[in-house]
Amino acid sequence: MEKVKIGLIGCGTISDIYLQNLTHTFVNTEVYACADLNQDKAKEAAEKYGIKHTWTADEIIASEEIQIVVNLTTPKDHFQICRQALEGGKHVYVEKPLSLSPEQGSELVKLAEEKGLLLGGAPDTFLGAGLQTCRKLIDDGFIGEPLSATAFMVNHGHESWHPAPEFYYKKGGGPMYDMGPYYLTALVSLLGPAELVSGMTRTSFKQRTITSEPLFGQIIDVEVPTHIAGTIQFRSGAIASMITSFDVWSSTLPHIEIYGTLGTLLVPDPNTFGGPIRLRPAQGSEFMEIPAVHQYAENSRGIGISDMADCLIHGGTPRANGQITNHVLEIMHAFHSSADSRRYVELTSTCEQPQPLPYGLVNGHLR
Ligand SMILES: NC(=O)c1ccc[n+]([C@@H]2O[C@H](COP(=O)([O-])OP(=O)(O)OC[C@H]3O[C@@H](n4cnc5c(N)ncnc54)[C@H](O)[C@@H]3O)[C@@H](O)[C@H]2O)c1
Question: Which Pfam families does this entry report, sorted A to Z (predicted)?
Answer without folding.
Answer: GFO_IDH_MocA, GFO_IDH_MocA_C3
